Amino acid sequence: MTNTYRTHPDYTSLRPQAVALRRAGLSRRQIRDRLHIHNNDLLNRLLEGEPVPEWTKRPNAKDDLRDKARELRKQGMTYDQIQVEPGCSESSISLWVRDLPKPERKRSREEASAIARRGWEATMKRREEERQETKRVAADEIDQLSDREPFLIDVGPYWSEGAKSKPHNPAERVTFINSDPGMIRTYLAWLTVLGIEPERLQFRVHIHETADVEAAERYWAQLVGIETSALAKTTLKKHNPKTNRKNVGETYRGCLVVRVMDGADLYRRIEGWWYGIVLGAEQRST
Question: What is the pTM of this model?
Answer without folding.
Answer: 0.48
